[in-house]
Amino acid sequence: MKNLIKYTLFLLVTLNQSCKKCDECFTPPEPFLFEIVDKSTGENLFKNGTYKSSDIEVIDSLNHQNVKFAFLDENDLNLIQINTIGWKTEKIHFQFKISNQNIFNLLVDAERVSQDCCSFTRYNDVKITNAEFELDSMTEIYQILVEL
After folding, report:
1. Which of 2, 70, 121, 124 is within CB 3.0–4.6 Å of 81 for a Cys-Cys bond?
2. Beta strands per DSSP E along the chain
3. How confident is the model at residue 4, as a pLDDT?
4. Is 137 part of any domain?
């Protein structure tokens, strides 16, 4: 009987330790940041007055609806920020216009993933079309190069 109790206790302790316990974590998707610059001078076109932030329009090309965005002008940043991509698995196609002129298109294949007790967004594909661009790997800011 003693051996049976010992064996049962050993089995319970072993099973309890082998069960994976974790606290779930949630990592929100990273925002997309865009700086619109003159291709030849590298100058920010909002900062120099060529464009006005009130003339920006971001349109979802798939459902023809306006997309929420923020214009970050504090500390002379002058960046367009999109926070709506990657909260769920989705494919998006956004058109960025300034004064009714198409500046660039953004295509993203985002996948919401749960792994090792954490959920996060995996960007399977990110494409910018209709414009030349550079991605600053340190700041994760896309510089859209506009030819005036």
Report:
1. 70
2. 25-26, 32-38, 56-60, 65-66, 70-72, 79-82, 90-98, 101-115, 118-129, 132-136, 141-146
3. 43
4. yes
Tens digits of per-residue pLDDT, 66-76? 999 999 999 98
Q: Enter the tokens of residue 23.
A: 């606290």
Which tokens in the block code for residue 14?
């072993």
Q: Which two tokens stand for residue 132?
A: 């030349």
pTM (two decimals): 0.83
Asked, for residue 99, whether it belongs to a domain, the answer is yes
Q: Counting Cβ atoms within 10 Å, is residue 88 exposed (0-12), middle (13-18) or buried (19+)?
A: exposed
Q: Is 4 within a domain?
A: no
Name the domain count of the chain. Answer: 1
Closest CA to 134 of 123, 142, 126, 146: 142
Strand 25-26 and strand 101-115: pairing? unpaired
Of the candidates 82, 93, 88, 83, which has an alpha carbon nearest to the alpha carbon of residue 122?
88
Host domain of residue 81: 23-146
